[in-house]
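Q: Hi! New to this. If I give you a protein sequence and the SMILES for zinc ion, can you show me the bound structure?
A: Yes, paste them in.
Q: Okay, here:
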Amino acid sequence: MSVVTKCIGAAKKVKHRFEAQIKANTPVYVSPVRRIERVKTAKRVVAMTFDDGPCQMLPNPQGTHEKGLTMTLADTLERYGARGTFDVVGSTAGNYPDEPGKEGSASWGGKRYDHYPDFGRDSQGGAEVCREEIDRLLSGGHEITSHTYAHVLYGWKPLVYGRRHYLGDIEKAVADLEKLHTLLRERHGYAISLSRPPHYVDRIGPGLSSYDALALMGYQYMAASFDGAGWLPLSSYEAEVEATWRPLERALAADPDSLCGQIIFQKDGFNMARRTPIADGLEIQLKLLAGAGYRVVTVSELMELSPFADLGEGDDAFPAARKLVKSGYCPAYRDNTVRPEAVMTVGELCETAFGWEAAKARVERVLQKAGPWPCGLAAAHPYGAAVELAMERGCLPKTEKADPNAPATGETLAAFCKALYGKAPETPENLTRGAVLKLLAASL
Ligand SMILES: [Zn+2]
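A: Thanks. Here is the predicted structure of the protein with zinc ion bound:
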């Protein structure tokens, strides 16, 4: 294992150790785009995502598989009645000039860019050339999601990817997403609804991130909660295959329900050692999951069952929050929690009702460098555009000093609903987020 790989592993461990602390100290906002890591459900359902394909190259050149990697994975999944989520790229053929990086390092497939399936082999991967593979995946009931067209980083990522070319521009990021979206729609009649940014790099530039680009596309952010480890180069192929299923076996032995609602991260491509342990590991993973009574579904099916991380079937506010999501509202935070017991603030109320519409206005204002909104909030404030829209629509009284953190009172909510739906509901004394979401859902 190279030094860089060891460093990535060590950094991941440190991040994991302090994750709870980092999360507790990071402000979180209501958002149209939610980061879907796992969802709350008591059912034994799980999803698997496969990044960086489709791939026509044979798994492990010296191996025994007869079909290309993507076809091999599809066949294996279907033998177990499983449906995968293939997080595809369009093409990396435009990512030149470039030089191949060192095998076993993070730049294995290119120094300035990523190349899939490998450096110099861009013509054997990506949705642009793998028409047959995409058709095959769709006819097998699998889901296609967007890992962007060219797999170029959205923003600068020092340390591991410091030498990489990056877009650094939301218009370029959206154009790239649209290119893949159009390809799938026009050639395959398929509508993408989820996306995972390359290498999870989110910051695009000042005040703008991947969440803004995804909001403009109407997508949700697809993350994952369980590492399938296929990307990890180890001393031998056998060790890499074992790394794909051993943690799963351990997790199921410790608690057979521990995988409920989780999203397992996998690769439809080669790892840094130019091997594809998933081609042999997947079968063992699926056997383990089937043995524990799990169904492997697509991420969209998982979200249909339960869209949120902290609310599931049987929870009081669940039907209202789900109805609102389906009706184009934004009842959850960016981390996909609804937090029904928390106090609903004025900014959150506005974002809940106008989040999708506001996303576009917010991006435009940040790009124009137009200064604060008339309501006094900064152009890049997460709720600035939504508060402004709420005032324009008569849902909030106009002011130049809006306070998005003030709790929404019964009076605020009554006026808000009167302007939005033409009638004011009876408001309870205790306006928790759950209570407000139920009132909004009942008004629809
Ligand atoms: Zn990737």
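A: The two ends are 56 Å apart (CA to CA). Let me know if you'd like me to explain how to read the tokens.
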